[in-house]
Structure prediction request, 154 residues.
Amino acid sequence: MSRFVVQRHRARRLHYDLRLEMGGVLASWAVPKGPTLDPGARLLAVHVDDHGLAELELEGVVGTGDKIVWDRGTWTPAKTDDPLRAVAEGELHFDLAGEKLAGRFVLVRRDPKNWLLVHKNDGHAVRGWDPESFPRSVLSGRTNEEVAAGIIGG
Ligand code: MN
Prediction:
């Protein structure tokens, strides 16, 4: 069992960063629309550089934007015990146990950069579930707007 984080990151464009701990770093995908429990959604997930483990609890003003820890918890690879290899091969099945996200997800590579993120239609699936309806940090309770305004979380 390893850790994961999803940050809601307002940069030039709003996106959510999905980061899965593996091999001592956080394998990362930027999901413009944000991950969802909706099994009908097929979401673009752009594979980006690995990040360090500090991102697991990093929120604040960064560069010209801001980020919050939108969700976090643990994850387990499915259908494989070698997630690094699954990523290298372009298809990773995994289960999330977060505060917002749960259940089986699949990341599938479409080209070297662009992957698809889907939630399987399992017991955690919720049709029409919208990540933007749950805007607060699971770490501090703050919204991105409150972080940008310098409000201290608790
Ligand atoms: Mn980002």
User: Anything to note?
Assistant: The beta strands are 2-10, 14-22, 25-31, 43-51, 60-62, 65-78, 91-98, 102-109, 114-119. The mean pLDDT is 97. DSSP finds two helices and nine strands in the chain. The helical segments are 83-89, 144-148.
